Amino acid sequence: MAIRNIREIGDEILNKSCKEITQMTPRTLDLIEDMLETMYAANGVGLAAPQVGILKRIVVIDVTGDEPYVLINPKIVEQSGEQTGQEGCLSVPGKSGTVTRPNYVKVVAQDVDLKTFELEGTELLARAICHELDHLDGHLYVEKVEGELHTVMPNEGEEE
Ligand code: NI
Fold first, then answer.
1. Which among 12, 82, 118, 132 is annotated as catalytic?
2. Distance 85 CA to ligand 1 centre (A)
3. Looking at domain 12-151, which of 3.30.360.10, 2.40.160.210, 3.90.45.10, 3.90.420.10 is its CATH number?
4. Over the stretch 97-141, which tens digit does the pLDDT of each residue have?
5. Residue 6 Cα, ligand 1 centroid: separation in angstroms?
6. In the chain, where the domains are located
7. Is there a catalytic annotation at residue 132?
8. Between β-strands 104-110 and 95-101, what pairing exists: parallel, antiparallel or unpaired?
């Protein structure tokens, strides 16, 4: 396991679309382990593969600190409601901004055995799912910010 370098805004890899995972390999399993380690080391609540320079449809999310989700080829199949709040991103260090997201989402994804499962989330989990899935299509939250980006102190607020 290793902590990987997190790509930052301006790196064109963050604007590219990711490829579906069609088979699990030792190399991809290593990537997932490294993504979890990198997310925790950076005190993030989520991380998408392109943030470590890999254009694959994989995200990891843990909004509580002890309940990691690995979502492979995730797709949002239901969403409802609305929440407006502060969002940050490990690829946009030191900044946050106001973003409106659904308050509930249901996602269909595959696990590390490529078995399909559903995950439902509300509030922060729903926000994190939406944020991370956007990364897989080359989108950063800054495109959706209402008003200006704010400067935040390190370790203040959640980063995804
Ligand atoms: Ni992010």
1. 132
2. 15
3. 3.90.45.10
4. 999 999 999 999 999 999 999 999 999 999 999 999 999 999 999
5. 10
6. 12-151
7. yes
8. unpaired
